[in-house]
Specification:
Chain lengths: ~260, ~300
């Protein structure tokens, strides 16, 4: 089935008649299922531009829909609804409402880069997945995903100290996503880990959680990076308001 | 200078994970280096490479963070090779190198941030980034290694697991896929070669470069558990007793989700998970503790003792 027909054969778009005779021929039953006619008019003409304005989405226009990305995709193997090729198609067509049906799973890309490896057009589908997940959040279609929370907690720590101390990142991530830190499998893991560890090692690990390892003379680098992040954020905000701008302009013309 | 000599003294970039969950990789890498007479000089006052998380916030910020590490090695330590055992660090330094060679915008951002941070801007080509696998393979080689083996790994059946970041995406690894002698991005073999030289029997493992879901190990644990379980089971089916790893994220992902699969799905897969440097170290006659086997989450000590190792 060509991918663009996927939306046409959803149950709500199909029509089957129990008793239907056309020109004397009985066409009752499932073998004569009809697809309802559909008119699509709610295209978001700037969708592709918005996605390409976010980091990772820059090369989306290069896609020629070969499907190598989905074919290679790690997550698609686990969940067939996870379909990078289809989402790239929808974005390029501006079919925002169709894209929004999958809004809760797009962030689940594991960044294994099998798609990027397979892509013959250098679309960098992994980047497109990140850009799309960020777009959904920035536009208010989804709350921040656990993955975005993790990225933010991590980046905050790098900006602050230059280095990552894992248990601190973990604790902050669980706090921010309101999850219990001590899940049964984690308790089991810690038990196994402590088992057989020398006291010196445990002390060292304990100390690291109290005194974070840091890169010295880091404040200037940190300030420069924060300034850069803010600047980029501002630029992206502007790029994402494009839709509203076009809408306003259209209304002005009509008026 | 031949590659052999060039890699004998390298700038060592352990990265954050090797100071935490991957400490046994740090310990075993240093121990193997020492046993082989190779010189590791730690990068001074290093910082995080940006990992996948900062890359997700902004790829150019990650390029800057990685470039600072290379700048310190090149400009403050006068080194021309950086060795990173962590796949994430290795990948990111390679990616930064590629971007700084090919993308003028990245060059401009890195230059601006470096100047504001008060250090020299890294310029592409100043250092060569290598993985711990390249380091041992190119300095000592299989023959050299075989000659130094005191405690053969014979009888150990190993599935070599390389993960994602060591080979993908291929454009950041221009030295790979260059025919005989070079590493392959579709069927990597450097770890297989080294462990075989140490006497191990490598099994035919189809998931060498499969993904362990490390990116979402905490944020989407269910998918990571599924992916890891698939790797563990496949290795077992291929006849392996041990999965050899070369990345701290993969390694701790396999260990964590081995436990999680048992706790949440009731699926227990009895297979040992060890860093390739731990295996090589023991082959070179080092004790299990010297290569940090006790620091791993999973317990392999009894198993190794029974095989006459450590």
């Amino acid at each position: 089935m060509p991918i663009h027909e996927k939306s046409l054969i959803r149950p709500e778009n199909l029509e089957t008649h129990d008793n239907l005779v056309i020109d004397g021929v009985d066409v009752s039953g499932h073998w004569s299922t009809f697809i309802k006619t559909r008119v699509v008019s709610d295209y978001n003409e700037t969708l592709q531009e918005e996605i390409s304005a976010l980091p990772g989405g820059e090369e989306i226009h290069r896609c020629w829909q070969c499907g190598s990305c989905t074919n290679a995709c790690t997550v698609n193997e686990v969940n067939p609804d996870f379909n990078p090729r289809y989402w790239i198609y929808l974005i390029r067509m501006g079919m925002e409402s169709e894209l929004l049906r999958d809004k809760d799973i797009i962030w689940q890309c594991v960044s294994c880069n099998k798609c990027t490896y397979a892509c013959p057009r250098d679309v960098f589908p992994e980047g497109v997945m990140k850009a799309t997940a960020h777009w959904l959040e920035r536009k208010g279609h989804t709350p921040k995903s656990p993955s975005t929370h993790f990225d933010e907690v991590f980046t905050e720590q790098v900006l602050k100290t230059g280095k990552i101390e894992e248990s601190r990142t973990m604790r902050r991530f669980f706090a921010r996503t309101k999850q219990k830190l001590l899940q049964p499998w984690m308790i089991e893991m810690v038990k196994q880990m402590i088992n057989g560890l020398p006291v010196g090692m445990l002390t060292r690990m304990g100390l690291a959680t109290l005194i974070a390892p840091r890169t010295s003379d880091w404040s200037k680098a940190s300030a420069a990076m924060q300034e850069y992040i803010d600047e980029q954020h501002e630029k992206q905000e502007q790029a994402l308001s494009l839709a509203e701008l076009v809408e306003t302009a259209k209304n002005d013309v009509a008026a | 200078m031949t590659t052999k000599d060039k890699y004998k003294k390298v700038a060592y970039y352990p990265g954050c994970a090797l100071e935490g969950s991957g400490h046994s990789y740090n310990r075993s890498t240093k121990a193997v280096g020492k046993a082989l007479g190779l010189d590791l000089v730690e990068v001074k006052n290093w910082n995080c490479c940006g990992a996948m998380e900062v890359k997700n916030v902004d790829p150019k910020l990650q390029t800057y963070l990685s470039s600072r590490v290379m700048s310190v090695a090149a400009n403050e330590m006068d080194m021309d090779v950086v060795m990173a055992p962590c796949n994430g660090c290795y990948h990111n330094l390679k990616k930064a190198e590629y971007d700084l060679k090919n993308d003028s915008e990245s060059v401009a951002v890195v230059d601006r941030l470096s100047k504001k941070a008060g250090h020299k801007t890294y310029e592409s080509g100043q250092v060569e980034t290598i993985h711990a696998l390249d380091w041992i393979k190119d300095t000592i080689g299989e023959e050299g290694l075989a000659a130094r083996v005191k405690n053969s790994l014979s009888g150990l059946k190993i599935a070599n697991y390389y993960g994602c970041m060591y080979t993908r995406p291929r454009h950041i690894f221009p030295e790979k896929d260059k025919g005989p002698g070079s590493e392959s991005t579709s069927k990597p073999h450097f770890m297989d070669d080294l462990l075989a030289a140490a006497g191990a029997e490598n099994v035919d493992f189809p998931l060498k470069t499969a993904c362990c879901g490390g990116a979402h190990t905490l944020s989407d644990s269910d998918i990571s558990t599924k992916l890891v379980l698939n790797i563990l089971k496949t290795a077992k089916l291929a006849g392996a007793d041990v999965i050899a790893t070369e990345c701290p994220t993969c390694h701790s992902g396999l260990e964590m989700h081995q436990i999680r699969a048992e706790k949440t799905l009731g699926e227990k897969v009895d297979i040992k998970i060890l860093y390739f440097t731990q295996l090589l170290g023991m082959a070179l006659g080092l004790k299990a503790k010297k290569v940090g086997v006790h620091e791993n989450i999973s317990d392999s000590i009894k198993f190794l003792k029974a095989k006459g190792l450590g």
